[in-house]
Structures are given as structure tokens and as C-alpha cells.
Amino acid sequence: MTTAVEAESAENAEGVENAAAASGKRRGPKSGHLGFWIFRRILLGFLALAVVSVLIFLATTMLPGDAAQAILGKSAKPQELAALREQLGLTRPPVEQYLSWLQGFFTGDLGTSLTSRQPVSSIVVPAAINSAVLIGLTLLVCVPLALAIGCYAAVHRNGRVDRVLLSASMIFSVIPEFVIGMVLVILFATVVFPILPAVALIPPDQLALNYADQLVLPVAALTLVTLPYLVLTIRSALCEALDSDYIVFARLKGLSERRIVYLHALSNTWAPLLQAVALTVAWLAGSLVIIEFLFNVPGLGSAMQKSVTTRDLPLIQSVTLVLAAVTIAANLLADVLTVLTTPRLRTGGRR
Prior knowledge:
This protein is an all-alpha fold. The chain has helices at about 1-25, 35-60, 65-70, 80-90, 95-105, 120-155, 160-175, 175-190, 215-240, 245-250, 255-265, 270-295, 300-310, 315-340, 345.
């Protein structure tokens, strides 16, 4: 009896999985070409990164102001400014500057910071590690919590608790990150319950994980921002699975509701969940700028904010390209995971 239900569950899994794939407008490989499809997607990812690198370079070179003036100050003499522009390579043709910058990025030479005079890599690498810690801790809290809430809401669909959870998810999904962060600071760092530090005092060259108490509020803010999307995704996928014919068949066979939900229905929500998590990582990469600035976490977001303020072009370009690479890689990972966990996409439609 169970085997028949499981077999039908696997067949009907396509409904939920393919719905997730279709909602993301993702196309799978043709029959027997999975390896080639992944290879082509990786190539397209590099092509997208190349286009983004051109846009980043054009945008940063069009920023108002003069980098030499920003370094030397308003009292600098014209001769000093001209000498510094020559030293920084700002007088070279834009195409030559771009190719030199791109070559340095792929060879690990990100240039020298215009303000600190340190290698950009010595700033970007520790910042990227701290941002990765922040994203990792957020996912570690957010995904299990979203799974539990989404499953509960789907199983108790249209109940009072489900309606409350849906309303709360809708409300939190439209609140900006900085508002949630400020409310958390007011509640847990200043006025109501002053039990946590309002801002992080982590040295830029130190690992943020060693200052766990200073990461509580940033992780909580990112969790509250990303949780509604994951909860709604899991609830929707699980509701669709619970309405499938094979679930009706399983109930007619007398299987327990707990076994139906957690063994058969929930297993068919992995594809949309994996895709949602991968897209959440891409979204988090963009939200870091606000949250790290708000809580003074020394990550890529803080480095971006400081470099824009001082017009530190090499640092702006490197941080932006790293964030773009993370976003592209997360989307690529979402595509690959969707295909690998969706039988119809994985086999190119062969039954």
C-alpha cells in the first residue's frame, strides 16, 4: 500500500516542482543533456558577470567628483592633483583602465585603495568572510523556522493561526530593512530591554563570529525580512501538494495524517524550497549594504558604503563585482537545484 502511494507521490511531485520551476520561468535541459545544460548555464553566468563588470566600471567612472581631490583635499595644488591622477592611472583611456582592472580582478590583484593605501584584497576578503558569516547565520535561523511555520500554516490552512501568520507575513514582507532594524534597536538595545549592543564594535580584520552577541540584532533583522517570503513559499508548495490526487489516495488507504504530511507531501516541497533559499541568498547580498551600515558590521555592505563616501573607485568596483558574482552564483545554483530535484526537468520530459 505504502509503495503504491510513494510511487504515485513521486509521479505527482512533478506538479509542485514544475509549478515552482514555471513560476521562476526556468527552463530545464533537453533529454540527455543535463551536463551540457549546466555547462551552458555556467558560461551564461560568466557572460552576465562580464556585462555587469562593464556596467560597474561605467557607473563608477561616471560618479561625480574627483578621486584625486577627495584624497588630497580642497587645499591641494593643481600640480599635486595632476601628479596623483597620473599615479592612479586616471588619465589613461577608459578602455585601458577597464581591461587593467578586469585582468587584476581575475588574477587576484584588486588594486590599491585610494584612501587607506592598502591592497583592496586585504579589505575585501575579511569583509566578504564577515558578510558570509552574517548570511550563513541568517539562513541557519531562518530556514528551519520558515519550514516549521510554513508546515504548520499549511496543515492548519484557513484556520485562525494560519490567517494570523499570513497577515504577519504580508506585513513584514513590505517593511523596509532599516525600519525593522531600528525597531529592534529600540526594543533590545536602548529603551525597552537594553540587553544587546546597538551597534557592532568588531575590528575590520577580526572574524565577526568571535563577537556573537553583536551579531544577534543584525541576524534578527535579516531573519525577519527574509522569513515571510520563505514561509509563504513553503506554505503554498505544501498546500498544493496536500491537494494532489496522491494525497487523497493516501488518505483513502488509511495512512496517518502525520505520515502523509511529513513523508509524502513535504518531500515534494524541496524543489521550491531550495530555489527559494538560493534566491534568498541573492537577495541577502543586496540587503547587506543597509543592515551592515545600520549595525556597523564590518562586511561588504559597510565597505561599499565607506568606499562610496570617499569615492574609493577600486574598492567600489571590487565590492560591487563580488556582490554581483554572489547574486549570479545564487541564481545559477537555484536553477541547477531546481533541475536536479525535478524529475521531469532532470530527464528532459522523459517518463
